[in-house]
Specification:
Layout lengths: L26 E2 L29 E6 L11 H17 L3 E3 L5 E3 L2 E7 L10 H13 L4 E4 L9 E2 L2 E2 L3 H24 L3 E6 L9 E6 L2 E5 L8 E3 L19 E3 L2 H13 L5 E4 L21 H13 L4 E5 L6 E7 L2 E7 L8 E8 L3 E9 L10
Parallel strand pairs: 2-5, 5-6, 11-14, 14-15, 15-17
Antiparallel strand pairs: 1-9, 2-18, 3-4, 7-8, 9-10, 10-11, 12-13, 16-17, 18-19
Helix pairs in contact: 1-2, 2-3
Amino acid sequence: MITRRRSRRIAAIALPVILIGLPVGLIISACATARPALRHHVVIPSERITSVAADDAFTVIFIGDPEARMRGNTAAELGEYVERLLALGDTRHEWFRIGDGRTHEIDPALVIIGGDISKDRQTSIELDLPIWERFFAAGIPVLAGFGNHDWEPESWGDSPSYSLAGHRSNESTTAFTRETYRRSAEIEPDLAYREVGPTADHGPVTFHATYRGVDIVNFNTFLYQPSYEYPDGWPITCNLLGGGAGCQTFVSAVPQIEAMESLLAEGASRPAIFVQHYPLSTSDGWWDDYDTTDTTLAMRKQRLLDMIAGRDEAVFLAGHNHRSSRRRWPVGDRVVAEHVAPYFGNRGGVLAVLASPSRGILEVRTLELPEIPTSNPG
């Protein structure tokens, strides 16, 4: 979260339907059909709040690395962790402890999947959406971004990548992430979102959502993930025997980033949760943009930090490292808080965030769900 002395401002949550002046039509409308208007929350002055129940705060669960069908993580095991997350509100077992001395139960209202959804080249609606279906059935939105295991790498060691199979895998991953947003907006009238399309024929779709007056900004792997294109007639015209691998041309993500910055400028008073798979604190190689820009590593990281610090109340959530950590990044007279999630697969580790449209990001907790008992305890 951002640390700075400031005055609180009431956050508006309605999003305009028509966007003007954004780069090359990258912004995609969230829904083709009308949905009920977003509800406005009544902000209760702090001196009138007598219990946490009267507050507008809600719980966001951030899952860093499900990695279904990897490292022994079965759909059944991940489904059991989903059930345990759903039970948190009923068991009243875990609590936030807010700085003013009050407590707030951890009861999931929104779930964010921060990448590495499944095994390399296997992420799909058919295989992965059923794992998270229980959240949708309970009326809880699920918003997913992809990680390095869900997206074709620059190369496979000494072998070229972005073959026809790799490209189709990317398309399957994109279909999955988009479907989570579509389903979530369908079941939750308090959720609206916009897609920011790729900068070439193919590439990542990033997302700007608003839920209960709090923005969620999703960059998938990281904000500089390049788009790509193929020559005419591909794959027949280029390395046909190799499945068309190595024929791609990478295209800079900068116009996509600029489009997201334009969206962020619309609701600058709202608290925001920024998510991507790669932490700022991970190994430098993961922040490679394949030489599609003239930026340095420091410049790429600084652009993300500046976007986060542009909000009075914001937090940055990431996964990838398979272990929880926290770090504070100074940005001018502000400090950006980075929280890296523990491993979800095989452990059930998550981040729990208490967010409020009127009071901002109140607390971030690391949770490790209890071990799953065997069918034969003896």
